[in-house]
Amino acid sequence: MQPILSGHPILSVRGVSKTYASGHKALGAVDLDINQGEIFALLGPNGAGKTTLINIICGIVTPSSGTITVDGHDTIADARAARMKIGLVPQELSVDMFETVLATTRYSRRLFGRAGHDAYIDQVLKDLSLDDKRKSKIMELSGGMKRRVLIAKALAHEPEILFLDEPTAGVDVELRRDMWKLVHRLRERGTTIILTTHYIEEAEEMADRVGVINKGELLLVEEKAALMKKLGKREMDIALVEPMTVIPGELARWQLSLEDEGHRLRYTFDAQAERTGIPSLLRTLADLNIAFKDLDTSKSSLEDIFVDLVAAKREEAA
Fold first, then answer.
1. N or C: which end of the chain has fewer CB atoms below 10 A?
2. pLDDT score recorded for residue 117
3. Residue ranges covered by each domain of the chain
4. Residue that wins the pLDDT comparison between 266 and 305
5. CATH second-level architecture of 233-299?
6. Phi and psi of 260, rounded to 5°?
C-alpha cells in the first residue's frame, strides 16, 4: 500500500543539531521531511545519532539548533500539541513492573488527556497479543511481552506518528515478524511510522523510504528500491593457486582487485543485475590458465555501505 500523502509533510525537521556541553557533537544539522502515512526507516550503526534525533523530535532532548514541526505544531513553541501527535516506543523498558498490563496502558492514555474509550484499548491489546495478559503484572511477563507493552503504551493515546527505536533489537524471530505485521496494519489506518534499526532486512521488509545516518550525519534519504539496489552489491573472492603481482589486461573489464598479497582476486558485482559477469570471468580465468582453489561470495556489510557513502560525500565536498 502506498503512503497516504498530505498537502504538507506531517513531520518537518530543519537544521536540527545537538552538541553536548562536553563538546561531543551527537548530531549534525539534519533536514528531513516525513509524509503522512509512510513508513520511514532510519538506518545506521549503534551510536550513529538515530536515538538522539528521535529524542529531540519527541521533546526528550533539547536541540542545539534548528526547528521541528509536527503536523504544523512547533515542538518547542507548541510542545503539548506536538507531543500529542507522537507515540514513542523506546529501546529501554520504562514501565512500572508492579502494575498490570491494562492499568499501564490506561494510565498512558490518561497521561495525554484522553479518557475512557476502553474499546480502543481492548483492540490495541488484542492486536499485540496481550489480551490474555491484561491482568498480569509486567514483572511476570517475558522480555518479548514487555516489549509489546511498550508499544501498547505508545499507541494508547491514538498518536498519528509512531516512533519505534530499535523495535526488534534482542527479540525473537516470532516477535519480530509480529511487529512487522503490526506496523503494516497501523500504516493501513493512516499512522505514520518512523523506525530506527541497524538491520538491513528490517528496512527492506517494512519501509517506503530509508534514511542512512552515520556519526550524526544524515548521509542520504532515498526510496527503498533505490537503496536496496546499492545494498545488492556482492563480493566474490577467488583464492588463487599461485599468487599474482599484476592483474592481466584481459581481466580489465571486471575491475578486479588484488587482495591478501596477491593470493586473492576480488570481484565486486551487482547481485540484482540480469548478468553478474561471473560465468564469463571464470571462463576467461580458465583461458588464461589462472588456477584457483576456492570461491567465496559475501554480501556487502552495512559498514561497507557507510564507508562508500562517506567517501562519496567527501568527494562531493572536495
1. C
2. 72
3. 11-229, 233-299
4. 266
5. 2-Layer Sandwich (3.30)
6. 55, 50
